[in-house]
Design brief:
Strand content: over 45%
Strand order of the largest sheet: 3-6-7-9-10-11-12-13
Helix content: under 10%
Number of helices: 2
Number of strands: 13
Shape: elongated
Distance between the termini: 23 Å
Order of helices and strands: EEHEEEEEEHEEEEE
Largest sheet: 8 strands, antiparallel, barrel
Radius of gyration: 19 Å
C-alpha cells in the first residue's frame, strides 16, 4: 500500500501520481505516536570492537497522513534528551553531560519532516530537519510501512519502522578518547532506529 507520491528521478518538478486506494484514503487524519508501543533507539561502535545500544524513553510526536494526496503527509517528533538509556547509569550520566548532549542546556532533540518519497512497495524515505544542541541539519530516514489495524480497544493504528545513519560530529557531539592501540573510544557514525506505532485521533 503506497503512502506517498513518488517524485520523478528525471525532474524535481514532475510528480507521478499514484491511483488513490480507498483503503489508503481511509487512513487520512492526524495521529499521535504511542510511546508505550514504539521505540527510538541508537547504536554506536565502542572501542572499535563492539556496539553499544541505547534508546530515548521519553518522547512525543505526531503524524499527518493524507491518503488522497500523500505528498502532503508530515511527521514531527520531540525527544527529551534526559531520557537517554543505555542500561548503565554512569554512561547515561556522561551522555547527558556537557561532553555529549548537555541535556540541561539543550533538553530537546527534534525532527520535522519536509518531504516524503516512495522508493517502491512499502519502502519510503522521509526527509526533514534534525535539531540537536541547537544545530539543525538535514536528515533522511528510510522507512517501511508495516500496515494499519484496529486494536482491541478500538484504536485505529498505523505502524512504521526505519533507520538512518548520522555523523554525530555534524551536530557538535565531538567528545572522544584515543585508544592505546589506535583508534578512538566512540565512533563518529551512529545508527538511529525507529519503530513507530501511532493512533488516529478522532
Amino acid at each position: 500500500m503506497g503512502l506517498f507520491n513518488r517524485r520523478s528521478q528525471e525532474s524535481a518538478t514532475t510528480v507521478a501520481t499514484l491511483d488513490v486506494d480507498p483503503a489508503l484514503a481511509a487512513l487520512t487524519g492526524e495521529y499521535l505516536i504511542d510511546a508505550a508501543h514504539s521505540s527510538i533507539g541508537f547504536t554506536v561502535r565502542h572501542a572499535m570492537v563492539t556496539n553499544v545500544r541505547g534508546a530515548f524513553t521519553d518522547y512525543s510526536g505526531t503524524l499527518r497522513l493524507d491518503g488522497s494526496d500523500p505528498a502532503r503527509s508530515a511527521a514531527s517528533i520531540e525527544v527529551k534528551i534526559a531520557s537517554v538509556d543505555t542500561g548503565i547509569a554512569d554512561r547515561d550520566g556522561h551522555l547527558r553531560s556537557g561532553d555529549f548532549f548537555d541535556a540541561e542546556a539543550f533538553p530537546l532533540m527534534t525532527f520535522r519532516s519536509t518531504e516524503a518519497a516512495q522508493l517502491g512497495g512499502d519502502a519510503y524515505r522521509i526527509t526533514g530537519e534534525l535539531t540537536i544542541k541547537d544545530v539543525t541539519r538535514p536528515l533522511s530516514i528510510d522507512l517501511e510501512f508495516n500496515g494499519s489495524a484496529t486494536d482491541v480497544y478500538g484504536n485505529e493504528r498505523v505502524g512504521f519502522e526505519g533507520s538512518a545513519e548520522i555523523l554525530r560530529s555534524d551536530w557538535g557531539l565531538t567528545w572522544n578518547a584515543a585508544l592505546e592501540a589506535g583508534g578512538v573510544m566512540v565512533s563518529d557514525k551512529v545508527k538511529l532506529t525507529f519503530d513507530i506505532s501511532a493512533i488516529k485521533q478522532a
